[in-house]
Amino acid sequence: MDKTNNGMNKRFYIALLLVAIAGFSNAQKRDTVIVELAKTSKVIFTIQDKKDIEILKQYDFQKLFQDIINKVEKGDTTALPQKDSAHVASTNTEVDDTYWHKHNHDNDDDEDDDNDDDWASWRENYTHWGKSWQSFNFDLGINNYLSKGKFPDGDNAAYAVKPWGSWYIAANSIQRSRMGKNFFLDWGIGVSWYNFKFDNADTHISKTDNEVVFAPDTRGYNYMKSKLMATYVNASFIPVLDFSDHNKKHRLWDNKGESFRIGLGPYIGYRIGSHSKMVYKDHGPREKDKDHDNFYLNNLRYGARLQVGFRSTDLFFNYDMNQLFSHNKGPNLNAFSFGIVF
After folding, report:
1. Cβ–Cβ < 8 Å for 69, 4
2. Residue of 15, 100, 17 lying closest to 65 (CA atoms)
3. Which region holds residue 296: left if phi is over 0, alpha if psi is between -120 and 50, else beta?
4. In this structure, what DSSP letter does residue 81 have?
5. In which residue ranges of the chain is pLDDT below 70?
6. Cα distances (Å, whole numbers) of residue 301 to 44, 232, 268, 271, 281
7. Residue 266, CB half-sphere, CA atoms under 13 Å: how many?
8. Which among 120, 136, 15 has a CA at the least distance from the CA of 68?
9. pTM of the prediction?
10. How many CA atoms lie within 13 A of 122 on its CB side?
């Protein structure tokens, strides 16, 4: 190697060392990589924001180092501009423009805070598998039941219900846990209410030693409505595919999100209360008869829940796989509900 090349290499190493030392003196809580080049020469890279790695991949370092050497040879001590198109590959100018717009002021504390927030947001959305977001959901819909796959009103059964007025209501605390890029698990607990409003307002529910009985009331009042209500504490585990990769619960009033999402999974519930209610008039104001009893209702309910959503609207469908009443204690009925999620 001739003297000219040796001198150039020496100046090259000195310039790199000066640049590295200057960067190192301003570093605060940065990742540091030290590259030994010779006996007494080294290059030190310090990185505070991980996003810099993608920008550095586009640099033409040969051109950058040549400019540094030229400045040292000329005795020019001014700093190189933070962005130089000659040093960055043209295939990623849009990404680079965004980067340099965000990082143009190294000593701006507010800007550093923004950078930290950007990095935290990136990690939250794409690398925190298993991270959960909590929300309160409300189900509002209609409930009914099937007897051997058919609606009881087809047989004019006394326990047939009105489709409108048999409300299903639920309040749930749901955790959404990220399991993959577009895969989530919606799991949580809640309370739900079945309201079975009978088609015949004079239907009276009674309980014998062997079974629950549905029969017309014989008192001859002016009947207004009759229904059976049951309250459950529930737990659900619903795997969800969300093609918008949205980590938080979509809200009906947000009007955000453009993609489709669907989930299907199990739930289980435990009955914590039940009662019947009749409303009628007997030559005067309305009167109510309430009878708090279990009516041989099963203490447990379990089934499958389907959730379908698009944009900011989510619909649900629940189907109880076990029967509403205990075996041989009442009609063979499987309850279901459907409606909208708030």
Report:
1. no
2. 15
3. left
4. P
5. 1-31, 33, 35-43, 45, 59-61, 72, 76-130, 245-258
6. 65, 8, 6, 8, 35
7. 6
8. 15
9. 0.62
10. 9
Q: What is the pLDDT of residues 106-165, one digit of tens each?
A: 444 444 455 555 545 544 444 456 688 899 999 999 999 999 999 998 888 999 999 899
Write out the two tokens for 72. 């040292």
- Tokens representing 18 are 């000066």
What is the DSSP track for 105-143?
A: -TT-HHHHHHHHHHHHHHHHHHT-TT-EEEEEEEEEEEE
- What the block records as the tokens of 335 is 């309850």
Q: Which residues pair with 303 in a beta bridge?
A: 267, 320
- Asked if 90 and 99 count as a contact pair (C-beta separation under 8 A), the reply is no
d(CA 236, CA 223): 38
**Distances from the Cα of 66 to the Cαs of 53, 72, 185, 330, 336, in angstroms?**
21, 10, 54, 90, 74
CA angle 296, 236, 252 (to 5 degrees): 115
Instruction: Indicate the residue type of 182.
Output: N
Q: In what helix (H) or strand (E) does residue 6 lie, and over which residues does it extend?
A: helix 3-25
Strands (E), the chain: 31-36, 42-47, 132-146, 167-178, 183-197, 203-207, 212-216, 222-242, 260-281, 286-292, 300-310, 313-320, 334-341
Q: Phi-psi region for residue 42, left (φ > 0), alpha (ψ -120 to 50) or beta?
A: beta
